[in-house]
Each structure stands twice: as C-alpha cells, then as structure tokens.
Amino acid sequence: MKIFDTHTHLNDEAFAGKTQQFIDNAKELDVVEMAIIGSNEEFNIEAIRLAQNYQSLHALVGWHPEFAKEYNEEQLVNQIKLPEVVGIGEIGLDYHWEEDPAPEIQKGVLIQQMDIAKQYNMPVSIHCRDAFDDMYQILKDHDLSKSGIIMHSFNGDLNWLNKFLDLGLWISYSGVVSFKNAPEVHESAKNTPLDRLLVETDAPYLTPEPYRGHANQPAYTRYVVDAIAKYKDISPEDIAEHTFNNAHQVYNL
Ligand SMILES: [Zn+2]
Predict the structure, then answer these.
(1) Centroid of ligand 1 to alpha carbon of 237 (angstroms)
(2) InterPro entries of this UniProt entry (predicted)?
(3) Scanning 20, 128, 199, 206, which has its CA 20 to 30 A from the CA of 164?
(4) Ligand 1 mean position, distance from CA 175 (Å)
(5) What is the DSSP string of 89-118?
(6) Does domain 3-250 have CATH number 3.40.1190.10?
C-alpha cells in the first residue's frame, strides 16, 4: 500500500541531518510521500530546500498564527511560484497560549494569506486550536473551497465535522485519532466520508499509539491509517488508497 503524510515537519530541528533516514523509515511502513509544512521564514526556507532535494517531498509555506507578526507577503508570493511548493500553510488561529498574538492580528494575517491562496489557486493547511467559532466564520466568509482547504489534525466533534464538511473542507487526522481518550475524534473519523479524508503525523508532535510518549516521525502515519480503519471498519489498504489519492488531488500532484 501507499500512504501520504499530508502534514509533517521534517524541516524541524528534531530531524536535522537525518532526512534520508526518516524517509527510509517511512518507506518501510509504506509512507512514500509527504508534505513538509512551513510556519515561519526559517521553516519555510527549510521546507523548500527539502522538497528540492528529495523527490518524495513537497513543501507548503506560510506563517503560523504564533508567527503572525513576522508575516512577509512578498516572500510568500515569491515562494509559492516555485514548482516544489504545493500549498500555503500552516496558517490559522491559535487561542491556546493566552491569545498571543492578539486574535485580531492572527485573523488579519490568516485572511491575507487566504486571499493570496485564492489569487494563486493554492490549497491551504489550516491550524485551528481553541478557535473553531472564529475559524468557521472566516472560512464561511472567504470561500476557498475551489482551491482546497485542509483542516489539519482535526480534533472536533461530529457537530463541527459536519459544519466544516458543509464548507467543502478536507479533514486530516493525526495521531490524536489513535488516542484512547479522544472518543469524539473517533466518532468524527468514523463519519468523515472517504472522499474528504486525509492522514498526517504532524511529526515531531502528536505521536500516535502504540508509540505515544515517544518521538513522532512520518512513518507513524501508518498507525493513523490503522486507527481510522478500525473506527470505519474497513481495511487499512482502503484508507491508504483513498487518502493517497485525495492528497494528490488537493495538492494538485
Ligand atoms: Zn503542524
């Protein structure tokens, strides 16, 4: 089978100097293609460098809400014209850390990047933490469904799932879906249509079972596939095939 990790950070210093090793580890568990996600100037540049050097890697570039104040539109527009860059991300809202930067700043930078995505017909990878209400409103007001919107590491319940599906989003699950204490995410995975489903690791974060508590790596997308297969009661091969094809569709590969 072939698995696509649609959101991972091989550009993180946790993997520095060991890119080939982690690509090889991934291949052993059938994870054969990955999207490397940027979040600020430094990580965007490294995502592009990796995608230029390894055929199975693609890059997304963008300014994560945590780095909203450093947003550089000119750089973003130049970078998304590179052939290795397949989308804009991760961008979004994060109200978890005492709302710093302020929500108004986060929203402004998110919307500016969404406008660029629309203009250049690029998909976006959305980071949303403790901010579903504001995110829903922004996505509703700025229809990007034609370019493609991925809700990365979705951890919402059935109610939020249905609202985001109605807006035409792609729903991507990380290791959280394998956690025993996330019943609402299991329920959402079970009810996400196969033609809207994506899988990811968000490595080095969010390590899935059975390795929770250890360092994460792209190879473990395999365990995300297994967890979703269990909740949907279909084979891992089916989940892998659909999510692989969906990833190619949303990233225009
Ligand atoms: Zn991420």
Answers:
(1) 25
(2) DNase_TatD-rel_CS, Metal_Hydrolase, TatD-like, TatD/YcfH-like
(3) 206
(4) 12
(5) EEEEEE-SSTT-S-HHHHHHHHHHHHHHHH
(6) no
